[in-house]
TrEMBL record:
Its main location: cytoplasm. Its EC number is 3.2.2.27. This is Uracil-DNA glycosylase. It comes from Candidatus Kaiserbacteria bacterium RIFCSPHIGHO2_02_FULL_49_34. GO terms for molecular function: uracil DNA N-glycosylase activity. The lineage of its organism: Bacteria, Candidatus Kaiseribacteriota. Belongs to the uracil-DNA glycosylase (UDG) superfamily. UNG family. Signal peptide: none annotated. The keyword Transmembrane does not apply. The keyword DNA damage applies. Keywords: Cytoplasm, DNA damage, DNA repair, Hydrolase.
């Protein structure tokens, strides 16, 4: 994790639950297939510095298929088959902007200040949700709280019931919180499509004299 984020989270990372979590994660990586790869575990924080966070997208846990997860929620590296949720995210961007992003690797968003944060940062191969309840949620909740408390005029995109519950951690008077259904094929037609979150985000950023996000990268 980058020095800047370590400074922000140093006290959190000293807590007993986090020490126990790291022991669990170390053991999991030694004993089996865990995603993302160890070197990508904190990729979201390396790609988006704390000072640069302007937008936060909250996912649940990493993709659990071979070669998919690389530390940024909803993102896969170019050349990997586009997951259904990401395909629907791109459909919504196309509807709002008339063009489709060309890269499934969302690092281009992250470098612009979009923190792509899964609530749980690890998962076992082919076993969705396998590392929930181990402490990651406590850690990532603390990150959301830190961003809410220390920054102003950040846009939080909360898609699906799981992410929407995180809205309670955010000061709605200081930030913009946008909620909708999840982009999964099971729910996208029930409120994700047509949510206009990408254009609304940029309108808010520009209104607060911040550079908009180029979602088409």
């Amino acid at each position: 994790m980058s020095k800047e984020w370590k400074e922000q989270l140093s006290e959190e990372m000293k807590k007993p639950y986090f020490v126990a979590l790291m022991d669990f994660v170390d053991t999991a990586y030694k004993n089996g297939d865990v995603y993302p790869l160890r070197e990508d575990l904190f990729a979201a924080f390396d790609a988006t510095s704390f000072d640069n966070v302007r937008v936060v997208i909250v996912g649940q846990d990493p993709y659990h298929g071979d070669g998919e997860a690389h530390g940024l929620c909803f993102s896969v590296r170019n050349g990997v088959k586009t997951p259904p949720s990401l395909r629907n995210i791109f459909k919504e961007i196309t509807a709002e902007y008339g063009n489709t992003p060309q890269s499934t690797d969302l690092s281009g968003w992250a470098k612009q200040g979009v923190l792509l944060l899964n609530a749980t940062l690890t998962v076992e191969k082919d076993c969705a949700g396998s590392h929930t309840g181990r402490g990651w949620e406590t850690f990532t909740d603390a990150i959301l709280q830190k961003i809410s408390d220390k920054k102003e005029n950040v846009v939080f995109l909360l898609w699906g019931n799981y992410a929407r519950k995180k809205g309670a951690l955010i000061d709605h008077n200081k930030h913009l919180v946008l909620e909708s259904a999840h982009p999964s094929p099971l729910s996208a037609s029930r409120g994700f499509f047509g949510n206009n979150h990408f254009t609304t985000t940029n309108e808010y950023l520009e209104a607060h004299k911040k550079k908009p996000i180029n979602w088409l990268l």
